[in-house]
Amino acid sequence: MNEDTINILKECNAGCKSATSSMEQVMDHVKDQKLKLLIKKYNDSHIKLGDECHEMLNEAYQNEKDPNKFAMAMAEMGTEVKLALDNSNHKIASLLVDGCNMGIKSLSEYINKYCTADEKSTKLTQKLISLEKDFMNELLAYL
Questions:
Q1: I want to staple 87 with a disulfide (CB 3.0 to 4.6 A). Which of 83, 98, 104, 118 is the partner?
Q2: Taking a C-beta distance cutoff of 8 angstroms, is the pair 3, 54 a contact?
């Protein structure tokens, strides 16, 4: 497994962790059952993809990468403040759409940066991008 493959898998895994953390954080604020089920569906899908990344890294005897702890703490604090002021479906969806946009952008940059990554890891990254796009498109109904 070449270095680009390892790096892109680590970034995908960190992205999945970041996404699931965000979804789990907002879940306590969600009152609408349909929105809650939508978030749960995509959270489960992100966990599954993260597990695939983790498994591939384990096969190569590589450690996974955790999201930046400081950035995660700051994002968590910001989300809590924003949702304390307004925990409407619109606000929750807006925060999650912003996260999807960041994920799509970052993952697309990683595909270009780690251009010699193997096909399997690149396809996994593209699958995560598609998942983020699908989630974002479904969230648009709440904006």
A1: 83
A2: no
